[in-house]
Design goal:
This protein has 2 helices and 8 strands. The protein has about 150 residues and is an alpha+beta fold. A hairpin with a 3-residue loop joins strand 4 and strand 5. About 20% of the residues are buried.
Length: about 150
Amino acid sequence: MVRTTPLRQARPLLALAAAALLAACAGRAPAPDQPIAEGLEGPVVGQRWNLLLVGTSERLAMPETPWFEVSRDGRLVGSDGCNAMRGRVRLGDNRRIEVSELSTTRRGCPQLEDAARVSGMLEGAYRYLIDHDRLVFFGPDQRVLGGWREAN
């Protein structure tokens, strides 16, 4: 007589549960070329924003004006002043914003540190406020990260 232990009986069920869990997780991850959000709406979307200030008062002198734009499918495109940027944006309740998957080209320029500050501001943005033609990003600690102006 062969005795079957409870662990030996549970192994096929555990393997099946693990496979189902992996399949469910894999099905939820967006492919790199697919949008994160469909029909993204709000005052941030569909508008080009040019950098105005870093922090509350610092202006940067860059080879080109840093800018970004968010499309309705959640894609971010822009420039950090030296390099092209691409990423993803999610908007939530209470003016919540999340910029993820931000990447830049690797063109060299003398202001690479300032360019990194621009992309860091986008990545660190937690909330936003729009006042007329100005967009202000705040970090999770409610500190002002910087301001942008609507481009005409």
